[in-house]
Specification:
Rossmann fold, elongated, SAM-dependent_MTases_sf, 15% strand, alpha/beta, Class I SAM-dependent methyltransferase, lipid metabolism, 4-stranded mixed β-sheet, 17 helices, CFA/CMAS
Amino acid sequence: MPDAALRLARLLEQLMGNPLPVRLRAWDGSESGPPGTPVLVVRNRRALRRLLFKPGELGLARAWVSGDLTVEGDLYTALDLLSGMIWERGEDARGLAATLRAPEARAAVRGLVKMAGLPLPPSPPAEEVRRRPSHLHTRRTDKRAISHHYDVGNDFYELVLGPSMVYSCAYWPAPEPEATLEQAQRDKLELICRKLDLKPGQRLLDVGCGWGSMAIHAAREHGVRVVGVTLSQEQAAYGRKRVADEGLTDQVEIRVQDYRDVADGPYDAISSIGMAEHVGAARYLEYASDLYALLKPGGRLLNHQIGRRPQRDESAYRVDEFIDAYVFPDGELAPIGTTVTQLERAGFEVRDVEAIREHYAHTLRRWVANLEANWDEAVRLTSPGRARVWRLYMAASALSFERNRIGVNQVLAVKTPESGDSGMPLRARTWGVPTA
């Protein structure tokens, strides 16, 4: 009688010290665990070898991306239940070492090794980026990292992002379900334009311009001249075509260029939307200083950036292994306080900070729904592994925003001249955005 699931569940519970929160189905078809919960499907013994040879987050990710491990039922519920176990036990090497000091945990590991079969570490899935010892953030490594993430294919991004082609947090009205993703993304772009107080004839630099959505909106709706820079060849080609189709080639220029190489300032305003996460802690002051130098006195910067929760011991912070290996190589998140401090060190006067954490959770759930509704086409355009990476990354990220593990903030900063006249209104947040 098949019993792999029962044996596996007992060993995992013995290792973790808690009952499994989801049902388990093993490669022999057997099941064990609480009924009525999502089913964690362990399709083969190789999944166990992946977990044993790389315990924690990366091993789980490798098993998921390769298809050795999957979930039947609601993915959000499964991730929420499983992440509770990970967060409580600790994901890092110290947490694992503490667990394995218990004799019963060591016995469980021996049992899992026996179930896993040949003790050979499986090769990582092809979608995994080779790990580097440090985040250098040179022009070459940044370009390689951006290419890994954004040069997946414009057709794939169209499936996920929808017609707006905006790959950052949308700005939702309340109640959220009444708005479309496209309306919420348009409201976000308009919000940024109003915060920057854009006027006809001004020059805007859009750093990390993506597929050109912000540049097009600012030029079409506010009459500004825009330079957008990206390191992605595919994004630039797509953006240039959109600009031409809109008849805005006299107003908008899309460049494949590192922000550190932009030398045609000064600009009246700069937008940086979902780009600063790629800069890295070691380079952040350089990033802020470069943008400060590119602005006219009185010019404004809108920095839209994901932030993490601060830790009591910041020296213990580590980059998310799954994100670093499969999604954003060399990406780094900083607490909002650190971001504000670095902008001020560069010379900016920070005038407004708006936290829009819940908005990103709504946005990600819409993107996941788009991916799932077009799953077969997404697999055809990329690969089964790449599609699985995106489904896991976006669903897990939605939960992280909902649980306040990470947030997203819009920071409005001014290059205030020596006169002290910032040009800001006496009452902040006068930039209300009407919803269509």
